[in-house]
Amino acid sequence: MPTNDAARSNGLEPNSTPADLALPSWQAAVKNAVRDPAELLRLLELPASALPPPARTAFPTLVPRGFVARMRKGDPNDPLLRQVWPHAAEVAPAEGFSGDPVREQGLAEHGVIQKYPGRVLLIASGACPLHCRYCFRRDFPYQTQLAARADWSAAIAALRDLAGVSEAILSGGDPLSLSNRRLGELIARIADTPVTTLRIHTRFPIAVPERVDEGLERLLRGTRLKTVVVVHTNHANELDAGVERALAALKPAVTALLNQSVLLAGVNDDAETLATLSERLFVCGVTPYYLHLLDPVAGAAHFDVDEGVGRELIVALRRRLPGYLVPRLARETPGELSKTVLA
Ligand code: SF4
Question: Which end of the chain has the least Cβ crowding within 10 Å, N or C?
């Protein structure tokens, strides 16, 4: 559980060295993130009565101040606030919702999981730049299932043991929680295998845009691997000028820059909001890729949107946007050989 995981409690990777303590700005932003729901309300000039009292759960609040600055003051229904507020509904039991919604816990061997043919997932870090309340890995046992140990040897050996793998996907947590030194070591080790493509799933450029620094750009430019970065944005208000600059810097360093969103009740479950998000992503040089139905993780039932509503939203988006700005509506079904594309 994230609670007793050092990475979860301080927002930094577990293997941080003393040299890491001379913090780059992005690490300082995570370290100084808001961890107290009451402080979040104060910063947003909201009275305690504006929202139901925060739930006490094992998944702590973590919101970088730059992300808070993009929320509307005085609005308890702000779509960014809703993504991070530990709503009282989190502790209400909900049928069909569990701690392991995609049944992946226990599958990782040395932090390596193969869900689909040809691709492997490396759980590169258990730390995140912010805690999204709907996260399907909010209960993931990172302490025992991380690829990061003293070095990456065990994970790389496990990857080499799998036949026909052409793509390595860095996931977590957020793999960009790793310092550039650690990330560089991992990329170099992967580049030394037959893998041809490196994919990075990250919320960092959105949550803490300072993470896109020259060191990261150099790493991505310098590898022989084709690089795909998939950022995670749910609402256009997340994409302010600082994020736009970060994405503009990232784009020339990678082969493809994509976005995935989660369809969330009260955040982005209407066509206008999703269309505005796609258009804003385009301005930022990012292609909309997936719109995921919520994985039924315990504590997130209040975000659930019916599949039929999701399908109708995609039809509405097709009517108003060019095809390249319409994401694919998808669901992950445990045991399937790929995600199920629904529309
Ligand atoms: S959705 Fe991503 S960034 Fe958010 S808590 Fe989960 S792993 Fe971390």
Answer: N
